[in-house]
């Protein structure tokens, strides 16, 4: 509980510091964006049944497309694998709505391949852009400093990358940012992405629950149960991911500072 409170306080402090450093026009834009987000959220909450029912009806049409639908989702996953694009988690949830757990191989295979393609693209062709990504994302820098360690073995590299992928770090930003690491093995990155791919079952599960929530069957009590399951699952996964990230960040900072050296395999 104390760790969770520290995370919330730290996040709030980081946001205030970030906001104060913005120029006035950008501050105005951020405020307008937050207000728009609040309004959209209220509209969604009021009309969520109609919205989800529409999404479910569209998902049925996509599923009937068979191979074409799968290729469309594979293409979309490939596109959002490159920074600065976003939307990977939303795509996973939508795939969960459309295909259920049968969509897991599509996500696992396509994301692993396209993440590695994105990494190699930035590693060999856009290294300067990759370095700028790392410079502007302090939450990635501590992981990069460990991977850059010349004493890191291939197995340790896979281990650290797997832990990194389990943390709540931006999907596409991570793919591109790691391209600046000189000796990073694309094979290690690919294996780490495959190993941590079961975490996408969480998004698929959320998609399945959303489908049940928007379906015509079931009474209000059943729909309430699905809604509670969605909230609890999302909050639990987010909290556990953030706690893992903070713990790893602390251990890696200790390791980088040379204080009470922490072997990678004991993190």
Automatic annotation (TrEMBL):
User: What are the record's GO terms for cellular component?
Assistant: Golgi membrane
Q: What does the record say about its membrane topology?
A: Multi-pass membrane protein
Q: Which InterPro entries is this protein grouped with?
A: Golgi_membrane_TVP38/TMEM64 (IPR051076)
Q: Is Transmembrane among the key words of this record?
A: yes
The keyword Transmembrane helix appears for this protein: yes
Q: Which UniProt keywords apply?
A: Membrane, Transmembrane, Transmembrane helix
Name of the protein described by the UniProt record:
Golgi apparatus membrane protein tvp38
Task: Write the lineage as a comma-separated list.
Answer: Eukaryota, Fungi, Dikarya, Ascomycota, Saccharomycotina
